[in-house]
Structures are given as structure tokens and as C-alpha cells.
């Protein structure tokens, strides 16, 4: 798979092979009582939970243009006090649809 990424995008030393262009963020989340009433999941327990996030464009081009039709991703890492980690990743794939004679 890595070889294919490098064949398509070229070798980019110092950058990720996929989702090469992106930014990271760190947030400290505080549990809210209203959420605790809806879910007993450990990530929503009282206290603080560090969350590390990465927002990126798909592909291996670190200098890609931020065009509206570009696939975007968001990945989150929740670091629980007991050492457990929850990870999630999502992609936003733009879909163009035609309404009458207009493309939205």
C-alpha cells in the first residue's frame, strides 16, 4: 500500500503518505452531567479527558489546494485516565447533485 501511495504522489520525505496536508489540535474535555445521563461510556465520566485531533485533506500531496471538492478527514484520539485510548476517524466526501439545471 505504501508503495502505491508513493507511486501516485511521489516520495515526500517528512510527510505522511496519506492525509499529508493537515493540522493537529489538542483539547481537554470536561464531562457534562447532561451527557452522563445519556451514556455510561467511560469517555463521558466526570473529570477531564485529553482529546488529540487531526484535520486533513485526503491524499499524499502536502501542498494540495483546499478546493471545495477535496475529501477531508477528521481523526480523534481520546486518552482516558486509566490509560485506555478511544480512536475514531471520519471522512467527508463532497457529493455534487443536480437540481434542475443547477449543480449544487
Describe this structure in words.
- The chain is built from two helices and six strands, in the order H-E-H-E-E-E-E-E.
- The mean pLDDT is 84.
- The strands form two sheets. Strands 1-2-3-4 form a four-stranded antiparallel beta sheet, with no helix packed on it.
- It has 104 residues and is mostly beta strands.
- A hairpin with a 2-residue loop joins strand 5 (98-99) and strand 6 (102-103).
- The chain is 13% helix and 38% strand.
* Poorly predicted sequence stretches spanning 5 or more consecutive residues: none
Shape: flat
Mean pLDDT score, rounded?
A: 84
Q: Major beta sheet, specifics? A: 4 strands, antiparallel
Helix content: 10-25%
Compute the separation of the termini in Å.
34 Å
**Strand element count:** 6
Strand content: 35-45%
N to C succession of SSEs: HEHEEEEE
Q: Kindly provide the radius of gyration, computed on alpha-carbon positions and rounded to a whole number of angstroms.
A: 18 Å
Question: How are strands sequenced across the largest beta sheet?
Answer: 1-2-3-4
Given helix and strand content, the structural type is mainly beta
| Tally of helical runs | 2
